[in-house]
Structure of Translation initiation factor IF-2, mitochondrial:
Amino acid sequence: MLFVKDADNIEPTAQLHDIKIIQEIAKKLGTRIRIVAEPTLISGDNEMKDKDVTPRPPAPSDLLKPRPPVVTVMGHVDHGKTTLLDSLRGANVASGEAGGITQHIGAFTVTLENGEKVTFLDTPGHAAFSSMRARGAVATDIIVLVVAAEDGVMAQTKEVISLAKEAQVPVIVAINKIDKPEADIEKTKRELYQMGLALEDFGGDIQVIPISALKGTNLDLLAEAVSTQATIMGLKSDYSGLMEGVVVESKTDQRRGKLSTAIVKRGTLRKGSVLVSGLAHAKVRGLFDHNGKPMDKAEPGTPVEILGWRELPLAGDLILEVESEKKASSVLRYRQHEAQKEKAEQSLEEIRKKEEEHLAKYRAERDARRLAGRFRLRQGPRAKEVLDDDGIPRVSVIVKGDVHGSVEAILDVLETYTGHDKCRLDIVHYGVGNVSESDVELAKSFNAIIYAFAVEPPAKITSDVPIRLCNIIYRLIDDLKEEISSKLPPVEVEEILGEANVLQMFSISEGRKEVPVAGSRCTKGVLKKSQKFRLVRNGEIVYDGTLESMRHLKNEVDTIKKDVECGLRLKDSKVIPQAGDILVCYSTRSEPQKTDWDPGF
């Protein structure tokens, strides 16, 4: 140390603070040094326990401050939810949605005339998006149920009512489209009352507001009803401490990477926070409001777009803020370990089955070997692991969507396909984001169709992989149905041309043999000699085949019209027609087959 500059204090108790001096001393000793993090003093047992994070216990009441209510707008498809929200915030989303039906959850803040802020969630009303609606009901404080006055209560209306009852969320009913001539407000109210909603008109406590979203009628009353309901509920939250929230939707943006829309439930979210949600984590690089403007912080009750996810969080998952990235990675390790454990438990049954099958096969082979002596049984080449094509046609698909919720909804609909015995439907791959080169390569090797749902295809496509661009879910399903139908073999369709009653059976001798002839009269349509005939006796088919000859009087003819008598001789002379039998003349033709898949909408 005497040879190192500034290392003058060489007492045994002296401390070295400067890292440069320590490096110099080590260099003089001819060694290399590496700087590592300080060891954490945690015993092995505690380490696993400290891994997962859970929401904090409820805050003491003196920390709570009022927060804006989260209001979810729900209702049947096409009843005017998005138009209502457009009128409330003065923008136009409905025209931007494909086909005028909402297929995403949108979240945004509206400032009412009295200065109060309200966060609105717009959910899809289409049948395919039930899981999205269920998430909307969990994240919300108040549900505004939109019912069209001319349609009344429909399937998704009923679903929303049951969701609200399950989640115990208060409901405000908005009867929309009252400007239409066929609107019947009273009938709609009666239907809602029959569904078990205690409306104010019938002595209950659920507010009903007739509105017209398009014309802006009574929207102030609706806003007032929402703020009254929020005041009654006394919504408060803790603005301090670590942030907690719910993922409403997640998507991949071409320029900005992985984004998620979330609603803050507690704490204040700022840039640089480290978040964990399910098996995903983020270091927040940016916060944006619903218009895409940057925000400095997001307080409870506000929707926010979070930029900086390493993996996409799943919609509906809880977001929790953790102290550091180190803590986040330990939480993820723990969660992945738990997920693997759960998966292993689920697949244990299958593994056991496979093991038993294998053992049985092995024992049989071993016994055969023992019987045959040592060298007798030579095994041939090994059987193929992958079985050959079983002849059933298949349609392979790759699904890419703009947001996680859409992909999930499409997969849910594909789950309803049951015709795997006629044509298999294979999902090769699915994901969020634009169609990439690797997707195209994958589709090529699997002979798959790529369905790009509201996302863009790659700029240059070299191969001839079919990429179908869709932005409406039922168009995608219709296209897939056509694709499946085109793979099905054609079906034979029968067309009945005519019928004849057998009046009497007589025999004629041909050479030395006596052959039976059915003396008949045509009762329906025409009989054609070239077509097939079926002999029906007491509802049972006795013969199905062709004719040997068809005669009228003594002449051989090709057709017999209605009400004409004739003698018909079947190809098979062993079949003897009897009086009272019916002969049916029919032709067959092949028609393309259609799939009977009904996705439920």
Q: What stands out?
A: The chain is about 25% helix and 30% strand.
